[in-house]
Design brief:
Layout lengths: L1 E7 L5 H10 L7 E7 L4 E7 L2 H4 L2 H6 L4 E7 L14 E3 L5 E9 L2 H11 L9 H14 L8 H14 L2 E9 L3 E6 L8 E7 L2 E7 L2 H6 L3 E5 L4 E6 L4 E5 L12 H6 L5 E2 L2 E2 H20 L7 E4 L5 H11 L2 E2 L3 E3 L12 H11 E3 L8 E6 L6 H12 L4 E6 L27 H8 L3 E4 L2 H9 L11 H4 L9 H11 L1 H22 L1
Parallel strand pairs: 16-17, 16-20, 20-21, 21-22
Antiparallel strand pairs: 1-4, 1-10, 2-3, 2-4, 5-6, 6-7, 7-8, 8-12, 9-10, 9-11, 12-13, 14-15, 18-19
Helix pairs in contact: 4-5, 5-6, 9-10, 9-14, 11-12
Amino acid sequence: MCGVVGIVGKGPVNQQIYDALLALQHRGQDSAGIVTCDGTRVEMRKHTGLVREVFADRHMRRLAGHVGIGHVRYPTAGSYGSDEAQPMYVNSPYGISLAHNGNLTNARELEEEIFEQDKRHINTGSDSEILLNVLASELEKSGSLRLDQIHVFEAIKGLHRRCRGAYATIAMINGVGIVAFRDPNGIRPLAYGVRYSPMGPEYIIASESCAIETLGYQFVRDIQPGEAVFVSDDGTLATQICTAGDVPHTPCIFEHVYFAREDSILDEVSVYKARLRMGEKLAERILERFGSDHDIDVVIPIPESSRTAAIPLAYALNVKFREGFVKNRYIGRTFIMPGQTERQKSVRMKHNAIALEFQDKNVLLVEDSIVRGTTMRQIVKQARDAGAKKVYMAVAAPPVRYPNVYGIDMPAAREFIAYNSTEEEVARKIDVDWLIYQQIDDLISAAAEGNPELAGFECSVFDGDYVTGDIDEEYLDLLQRDRNDGSKRRRQIAEGEQGVIELHNHA
């Protein structure tokens, strides 16, 4: 998962993009980058690390211009490290920078096609570089020295014909403007806003509405599936649907479960309200199983994103809601860490139990989702060590049993704790007295209530149904070989050794 932002302003946009990336930091902590343009010259800064670590005063001063795009990343396709940091840039034609959230499912075929047909070379393992070169190739077909919105929209139409998968993308074309576009299914989120200055309108495009509103822009709307939004260098906005056919709008439901910030509105659905409804649905399941004579003494969320679901759940069960864990906010998301040893060490540092809330109580822990189960085993142990008589678990999402192919770097399926396991078997694995998962129909209902016009959701991690229709067992086998812990460890070691070589050569 990544976060993207683009701004066409009437003055310098470097600080605004920096602030927007801070608002989107939850979407990626591996690297960050900003590219700006003053109409002729492009300036770029990107590196591994958090936003506040990547940009110093000297970098910000150099990022001049009233047009720019930014990106925060965690690794999906490709490897780890600064070579994969975005935005990515290509000189020919025109000079194009690109920030991408998602994953191309036909990246391997496209890489061969780009080399053989477009005579372009891909230098990294990132599908974002492939997407950038497809866009560059399609823009080159215009044959024009000066691009306008017609040329840009035709290029996006060509890109949609060639690319499959999930992509919410913002590209900056030097001296022309920025164009944002979303895949035909609208799997990954993208929206835009406007702010009026004495010199005219300024536009922002971002992954989530929270980044738009934080900067003082007025949220306008979500970018529609298959739609392109073009903002010229002088601040003129134009939009066009660039896909043909009736493709169902199926946004990723995991955004509402875990990834998106609670103050965001995605496809007209409040993330906060959706999570409240998830808690209400969970309470209904618990009451159906145990009735009002359950023996739960206290409901305790596992910080942070499960808290919103836990509050209405506790209310419906008529039991106390308490904060039982203190979370270290500076530890990354454990399910995307590259090795089991790192995850276990991180979990121990991430949460600490408040013993007074557990002592001699039957505790219902609430979590948004369980992927590997590494975190859960450690947290349940902490609850028991703190004196809980019984530990129960309610999960606001169904069991995760299938890999994600659309931009979330979930592991190989065999590394999921629920892989080929029943609810009772998972309960034994994490050592809880009982476990209740959300039903998938309830999850969909909790999100869809905010926007009845949505055709459905991309729920493949729960049901194995890949909405783009191009995922087969061969693709999943390749994905599993690439995403298992052993493969990630080997890449990490190789990149570490390469870094040593580069430092030695530089010295």
